[in-house]
Structure formats: structure tokens, C-alpha cells
Amino acid sequence: MTFDGALYTIAITRPEGWERAAVFSIRFSGGAALEISTTRHQIDGKTVTVTDRGFGNVLDGLQFNDTATAILGEQTVTVDLSGAARPVQAFRDCPSDAAV
């Protein structure tokens, strides 16, 4: 995940690559479970990328849950979020003119 001062970007690489699908989702499982979907994703090689001006829900999902599952069509990648809370908080604490 990155923030360039205006846009947040999350990029998820799958060794087998990603096939095109209309909707990309991230499902967060754990203490603050939620699912976020978008049609504004891009695929470049083996990486799917989503860019937006607000990522508060994504940051909450990463910080307060146990796993994140990226879903594009029938393809998935699950990420263990153990130990993610502190780095996500540090990311939030970085100086910025934009509110999360």
C-alpha cells in the first residue's frame, strides 16, 4: 500500500497472475469483518492494483482483522494480517494533508 499525498494505492501480486473480471473485492475476516468491492481496478502482469482518494475502510480492515482475501472472479489470495496492526497505525500516523 502506498499514499502519494493524493491517492492511496494497494497492489496485490498473485504468482499465477490475475484473469480479468468485472469486480475486485477484499474480504477482511476477524474482529472488524467487512468486504469492499470496486470496478476500478487494473491488472498489470501478475499484479492487480486499486487506486482511490480514500482508503479508511481498507486501513481499518488491515489493522483490525486477522486475514484479508483479495478476490477477482474465481481467483483469490489470502493474506495473514498477524502483526499488521502496528505498521498500519504507523502508516496512518505519517504526516499528510489528506484525512483518512
Q: From the alpha-carbon coordinates, what is the Rg to the nearest angstrom?
A: 13 Å
Low-pLDDT runs of 5+ residues are: none
Main pleated-sheet profile: 4 strands, antiparallel
Which of globular, elongated, flat, extended, rod-shaped describes the shape?
globular
| Global mean pLDDT | 92
Number of continuous helical runs: 2
Q: Helix-strand pattern, N to C?
A: EEEEEEHEEH
Q: How is the topology of this model organized?
A:
Blueprint: E1 2-3, E2 8-13, E3 24-29, E4 34-38, E5 41-44, E6 47-52, H1 56-64, E7 67-72, E8 75-80, H2 85-93
Antiparallel strand pairs: 1-2, 2-6, 3-4, 3-7, 5-6, 7-8
Helix pairs in contact: 1-2
Explain the overall architecture.
This protein is of the alpha+beta class and 100 residues long. Helices cover 18% and strands 41% of the residues. The chain has 2 helices and 8 strands, in the order ββββββαββα. A 4-stranded antiparallel beta sheet has the order 1-2-6-5, with no helix packed on it. The longest helix is centred in the middle third of the chain and has 9 residues. The model has no long low-confidence stretch (mean pLDDT 92).
